[in-house]
Amino acid sequence: LRDVPLGRLIQYICDETHLRYTVDDTAVILAPKKEASATGKLHQLEKAVADQAAKVEEGRKVLSAIVRTMGIIDNGQASIRSDDGNARNVLQTYNQLEQQKMQLESQIQSMLKYNGEQLMVYAAGLNVPDNIAKILHRQYLEAKRQLEAEKTKGLGDDHPTIKATSQMVDQMKRDLDEGVVNLRATLQAQLDLANDRLKRVKAMKDGSREEALKRGLDAQDYVDAKREFETDQALLQQLKLRLLDEKEKER
């Protein structure tokens, strides 16, 4: 090629090699093209996560309404109707719920008390099923170690590699912050449900069972609603993990 502007020449090269290019103050950066199909898949996953989160929230409201209406209690092993439990089972359930409530309150208070790195470390260390913050925190620390390792090679802050790695670390930090917020919301939802159950059990413990006995409703609705809610929760966590994997591939 002769008499061709440099920008057009670079574009020709990118077209032939399936690359894309960007220009900053010090360099022309060549990188793989982002496939449209991958981007579309990412958008689909984000929409699926949002839809599933709404479904989980609706399921939580339905379950809570059944608990309030039917006087259902959960002893941790089987769902029973309030008029089927004897005094011993009620007391045992009450104590379990009290312990669960105290633990959740302590976890939430700690998350409100901490900030910055302390909050991330605490959230990542919580023994909660499908704790995404734990995975995100591990990936964030690995990215920071990678950035520091590259800096020790003598690369300056304006070097393209340092800039790209720094952007990746910043994005992981934002993802981690979002994961911590979601975890706190999940704990709060669990606490609300525990408080609701505790009120019902306390009413039974204090002898206030007349209304529940009048209803005589079957607890099967609660069992089905709870099973569906837990299934939807598990699916939501799976979708979030898939979305996280896709974001990692995009980087």
Can you put this structure into words, describing what you see?
The chain has helices at 6-17, 36-70, 87-113, 116-125, 132-151, 160-205, 210-215, 220-250, and strands at residues 19-23, 28-32, 72-74, 79-81. Residues 76-85 and 211-218 have low confidence and may be disordered. Helix content is 75%, strand content 6%. By secondary structure, the chain is mainly α. It is elongated. It has a two-stranded antiparallel ribbon. The two termini are 34 Å apart. It is built from eight helices and four strands, in the order H-E-E-H-E-E-H-H-H-H-H-H.
Q: Percent helix among the residues?
A: over 70%
Specify the overall morphology.
Answer: elongated
Structural class: mainly alpha
Termini separation comes to 34 Å
By DSSP (H or I, 4+ residues per run), the number of helices equals: 8
Identify low-pLDDT runs. Answer: 76-85, 211-218
Proportion of beta-strand residues: 5-15%
The count of β-strands is 4
Mean pLDDT: 78
Q: Could you provide a short overview of the structure?
A:
By secondary structure, the chain is mainly alpha-helical.
